[in-house]
Every structure is written in structure tokens, then in C-alpha cells.
Amino acid sequence: MSAHRPDRRWLRGPVLVWLALLLLLALTTWIGYMPLDHLNAAINFPLAGIMVALVAYYLMRLKNEVGVVWLAALAGVIFLFTLFFLTFGDYFDR
Amino acid sequence: MTDIPFQSLPEAPRAPATVKSYLDEGHTLASWLFTTDHKRIAILYAIGITIFFFIGGFAAMLIRIQLLTPNGTIVSPELYNRIFTIHGIVMVWFFLVPSIPTTMGNFFLPLMIGARDVAFPRLNIISFWIFFLGALFTVVCIVSGGVDTGWTFYTPYSTLYSNGHVIAAAIGIFIVGFSSIATGVNFLTTVHTMRTEGMTWFRLPLFVWAMYATSFVMVLATPVLAASLLMIVAERALGMPLFNPHNGGDPILFQHLFWFYSHPAVYIMILPAMGVVSEVIPCFARRVIFGYRFMVYAMMMIALIGFSVWGHHMFVSGQSPFANIYFSFLSFMVAVPSAIKVFNWSASLFRGSITLEAPMFYALGFVGLFTIGGLTGLMLASVPVDIDLTDTYFVVAHFHYIMVGGSVSAFFAGLHYWWPKITGKLYNERAARLAALLMFIGFNLTFFPQFILGWAGMPRRYATYPPEFQLWHVASSLGAAVLALAYIMPLFYLGWSLYRGGKASANPWHATGLEWQTASPPPKDNFAVPPRVTHGPYFYHADNDPSQPTKNAS
Amino acid sequence: MSQVTITSPRDWQEHDLSLAARLGMWIFLATEILFFGGIFCAYAVLRYLNPVGFGIGGHETEILYGALNTFVLATSAVTMTMAAKAADGADYRLIRIGLIATFALGVLFLALKGMEYHDDIVHHLVPGHHFALADPSAEMFWGFYWVLTGLHAIHMSVGLVIIGRAYWLTRQNLKLDELRRNLDVSSLYWHLVDCIWFVIFPVIYLAGRSG
Fold this sequence. Notes:
The complex is a heterotrimer of chains A (94), B (554) and C (211). By secondary structure, chain A is mainly alpha-helical. Chain A folds into 2 domains: 1-63; 65-94. Chain A contains 3 helices and no strands. In chain A, helix 1 runs antiparallel to helix 2 (38-59). The mean pLDDT of chain A is 91. Chain B contains 16 helices and 4 strands. Chain B has helices at 29-33, 38-66, 77-96, 99-113, 121-145, 157-161, 166-193, 206-238, 251-285, 292-305, 321-349, 358-381, 383-389, 393-423, 429-456, 470-500, and strands at residues 425-426, 502-503, 541-542, 545-549. In chain B, helix 2 runs antiparallel to helix 3 (77-96), helix 4 packs antiparallel against helix 8 (206-238) and helix 4 (99-113) runs parallel beside helix 14 (393-423). Chain B is globular. Chain C is an all-alpha fold. Chain C has one domain (37-205): Cytochrome c oxidase, subunit III, four-helix bundle (Four Helix Bundle (Hemerythrin (Met), subunit A), Up-down Bundle). In chain C, 78% of the residues lie in helices and 0% in strands. Chain C is built from 6 helices and no strands. Chain C is elongated, with a radius of gyration of 22 Å. Classes of the chains: A mainly alpha (94), B mainly alpha (554), C mainly alpha (211). Chains in contact: A-B, A-C, B-C. At the A-C interface, helix 1, helix 2 and helix 3 of A face helix 1, helix 3, helix 4 and helix 6 of C.
């Protein structure tokens, strides 16, 4: 380890992400209390999705990752969507 | 690109007089039970799945004895329900799903890509113990408590009404699922990061591609099974009403979650078999596989589309007609890549120099039996036909043609093909061919009558039946006896070969794969020197001149 | 013709260990996405079929605990990243501070959860004979509450063990590469557990909020 203080300017990035997460938390809670019927879920879940995306891209470092890791990260999401999509196809038509 | 065989290069390192094989690296029990060598782990798994195969087979024997007479020969309907449940659970999860991947996959994946081991060797041995202890726990719980739900655990029977060790069985299967996931993670990472120099993606043997596709499915499907089993336990043990109609729950929801795993599970069971057959046929026909790239694309398409067809198990469950339509359509689609593979295996035989050693016998049997299973699957994928055939013996015959006629045949093909490499010994070819013939005859005698029974209306999971079905049931049970004999024979001649068999050379079949370019059995690090690959895998003849077999392959 | 050409003896080369570790962990994370995702799918279907009951059930959840816990985990996500990124520069002091902070926040989360569970039990919000609400599908909602938060808490506890081990490794004279691999992988796991909570929050705490 160097004798000088270590360069910790990179901390700015994660702190910005933290502020964004808190903002989104406040936003989604606030919206949650509005009487919007079905729109509540339609807004709150994508907001949660944005929080997850921020964590995945910046904090889990997908931003700098190679293709095969992106493939692994996306595969879970894509097949989960398949489960939702085809299952709801049944329920929407009942 | 000159035609220089491996052994005659002047710079090649002189092979030591005897290579210390992986079998000689430690003779204690601990050196086996706590090994991290993928080859030894493969053997541990082989012993494990063999034990479970015979447990599941014993249950099958009881089933076939029961069905010899219309009013049931030996057991009550309640006990019968428990017998077919344990047969299904053990055969699917503790034999078929692990079979080829954990034995031949573990042994040959690193060899075929030129690596020393898998990416996570410690995870590998842990995955074996999770499998073995979890499966043992499950079997003990089922036998001591009697689970009668069928291997499919349908709600609300399994959650609200069934008496027996449903919770323990569900937990046991949940635990064993981790073994599947661990194997999948290991194989995927190994193929991505440990291929030797020159081993590009399209120089990989089809068996490696099959392991890759299988791992992909194992990793993505098994967690949903875990979720569905966990929810059964939550409802049963903790009183959480998740599938209870009284609370607004939907029993069919369980079926959606269960089959989201269990349909891809059947691809977990067949893709490895396809990989084995793709190795055996080129070797014994002395031909490059026909359409290598399409074989690869077909396996990947099966793995991908296979996630979208699960509703074909639910055509009469009460799911919407719209869902029936799209699941049926997608099920027709998924048959196409399988058909492509059957065409390509057949085309690989054209102008070949075919010999019928035991591995080839099993592999050719696979192609025929898998085709019958697949075509009957298409019949069942058609909604109007399925409405009549669902829950009949037609379905039972269909999936046994694929699982047993297909996967088990391929397992035996691979077992015999790679036996010399794994053990360094040669088995008795006459005995093996006899067993293969008996298996083919016994299998068809057991399961073809079941197509007829199903078509005539015989329901599955019934302990008794109307007398007019008896002829076919007796034929089927007779076939099962022949099949049992065919399965027991290898225990004897393969076991005998370990003590008295001839010593196998590095390449007794004159095959071209990387695993044949090292000693039989291989050393601990698989190769004396790290290999560098310069060709594709099936170089049985020059590209434009099939009549000229290449030097090493003659 | 064999597939192999040997031109000279050479040594085995190590493959990319860091990529293998990250890839292996991301594939495992994909399995966790599908595991929780399967349960979320069941929730989504049943909420679609029983919107009123789920709203009634959801109204009884304690949003203060939920929001506070979300805040705690969002912060721990950042402190964990701090620890992992500090390893790039061999900044051992910051690694340890990050790990300790993350661990403390994790413990705080579990403590808050425990208090919340206590409240829920006192209010008879456990499915079964004494369930507090009359609506049968509200009982189903609360089944999901216990399953989802319980599973999450178990994953969080495993995460604490992983962080504890990572801290222990910083004191073991490991090669920097090996330590970085462990921190990368531990950090990925921890972040996933955080992300699962970010989805649990609207699923459990924002349902029926506006009713």
C-alpha cells in the first residue's frame, strides 16, 4: 500500500447510485399512496425494476463486464418473463 | 494442415512406459469419497445412479406383476399409488436427470475440451454428496411414509388431502435439485473458460455441446421446481394457503409452475443422450457427422423452445383454450430440431462402413426408438387427440419410448463406448451384443402393447382394469422380465471385465476425439502434455474423399 | 486423423480464474432470479385473481418497517460495492470498513425484521386458525408475506456468513488476486439479495396501500 492516502475519488459513483436508490424509494412509496387503482402496480414495479437495473449496472459492475456474463445475467430475466408471459396467457383468457 | 498422426512426430514427448492412471492416485476410501478429480467423481455418481436405478426398477417390477391380472395381483390400490409414485420420483430425479451428465459428462467434458478438470472441482464433489445423501433421504422418507401423489405432486391433493411423507419427499427433491444446479454452473463455466488452445466453439464435439445445452436447461428450470415444491411445503406444513381454492387459490397454478420445470426436465434427460449418440455413430460408421452446425443449432433450439411448451401437459386441466392453442403450436415447433437431428444421424450412415459393436447397436436402437417416441409425442401435442389420450397408457408408452428406449439406450451406448477409456479394460463383445439385443426386444415387448392399451382406453395409474386388456398387460409384463434380464447382464460382464478383461489401448475404437488421444485410463491431469487443437472433431475421412479414411482412423 | 497436433511439450496454462468466478456466480444468481421469480409469478397470478383480498391483506403490512429496511439495504449495497472496489486498489482499510458497515446494516435489517415479525404475530397475521382478517384471499396474501420475507431473511443470513468470511480472508495474507475474486463474488451475492428486497417492497408493502 502506498504511503500517500489512497485515491478514493471513485467513491462518488456509488454514492450517486445510493442517492438515486433513495429517491426512487421515496417516489415509489409516495405513488403507492395515490388512489390509482391498477396503475399503482403498473408504476411501482417498473420503479423497482429501475432500482434493480441501477444496482446491476453500476454496483454489480455489469457496465464493464464481458458478453458472456451479460448473457448469464439476462438469461434468468428472459426465462422468467417466459414463465410470466405464457402463464398469464392462460389466466387472461379464462 | 498436414496429415501427421499423433504418435509419429519426432518432437513429440516420448510417452513414459506406463502412465500413472487416475485410478492409482490413492487407494484409500477417503481418496475416493473426498476426491476432487472429475473422473473419480464420475464413478461415484455412476455407483449412486446404479443403486437408484435398481430401486426404481424394483418398483417397476412390482407394477408389472400387479398388472398381470385384471383385479390386481399383489397390492391394494392405495399401495399401488405409492409404488408408481416412488418409481417416478426415483427414475426421473435420482436416475435419469443425473445419469449421463454426472457420469459421462463429468468424466469426458474436461477431456474433450483439453482441460485438466472442471472449473470448480470442490463444488463438484459437494454436488455429488448433495445428490447422494438427498436422494437417500428422500427414498427412506417415501418408503417409510408412503407418498401417493404421483411424481407430479398435483395440488390440492398433495397439499390438503394426501396422508404420507409428502413434505419430507418434497424437501428431499428440493435438496437434490441443488446438485443439478451445481453441475450446470460447473459445466457452463468450464466450457466458457477452460477450452484448450485451438478448441474453438465449432470444433467442440457434439457431446460437449449437449452437456452445454443440458446445463443451460438445468440451471434455469430447476429453481422453479424448487419454488413450486417449497410452496407445497409451505401450504402443507405451515398452513399457508397458496393453492387452496377455498382461499381463492388456483390448483392449476401449481401445474404451471411444476411443468415449467418438468418439461425442460425431459430435455435435460434427452439432450445428453443425443450427445452420446452423436459421438458413437460417426465412430462406428467411420463417417464425419452429417450437418455438424445444424446439429449444434438444433440442440440449442431444443433447449430454448423447450421452455415454452409446458402447457401441453395441461390440455385438459382447465387452462384456457387460447393457452391450449399456443402451447400446442409451440410443441409442434420444438419437434422440428429433433427431427433435424434424426435426419442427420441417418444421413451420417450413408456410404459409411458400419459395424455393429454394442455401442453402435444401442445408438441405432436409440434413433429408431426415439423417433417412435417423438412421433407419438406429436400426436399428443395435437389438442383434439390429447383430449382422448391424456392420462392413458398411450402417454406412458410415449414417454417410456423416449426415456427408456431413448435415454437409457444412449446411456448404455456411452457406457460401452467409453468403458475401455474409463477402466482401461475391454468387455466381452458377444455378451454385450446379446444384452443389447435382449434390451431391444424386451423394451419393445414391454412398451409397444402400452400404445395399444392406451389407444383402447386403459387409464394410467390404475391398479386394476377391465379383463379385455389383460392380453396386452401380460405381454408387457413379459417384456419387462426380458428387459430386467438385459439390464442385469451388464453388471456381470462389465464387472467381469474389471478383473479378467483385456487391457485396452489408448484408442481401441480408432476414434478421433480428444479423449482418445490419451492413455486408457487417463492420468490424473488427463493429458501428459496440454493438447493444442487444429481440427474439428470427426475427422474420419478427408472432406472431399470419403473413400480415403485418414491415417489414424483406419 | 486425430484432433490434436503436438509440436512441443508445454506447461498447463491457468484459465481466467476471475472470469470463471464471476461467471459462475452470475449463473447462480440467474437461478436465484428464477427461484424467487417463480414465487413472484404465483403471487402475481393470485393477486390478479383476488385483487380485493390482496389489497385488504396488504393494507395490514407495516410500511414504516418496510421502507426503513429498504433504506438499510440500499445503503448496504453501496457499502458492499465500496469494499469490493477498494480491493482493486489494494485499499485494505476501506475494504474492511466496507465489510463491517455492510455486516452491521445486514444485522440491523434482520433486527428490524424480527421486530416486525413480532408485531405481525401479536396482530394474528399468521395464516391458520387464528388469522385476523376475514377475507380468505387476504390469508393467501399473508402466506406470501411469510414465505417471501422468510426466504429473503434466510438468504440474508447466508450473506452475513459470506461477508464474515470475506472479512476473515482480509486477515489471511491472501494474494490480492484471490482476495479480489472472493470480494467480487461475495459482493455479487449480496447485491442480489438487496435486489430481491427491492422487488419484495412493492409486492408486499405497496399492495393495498391506496385502498
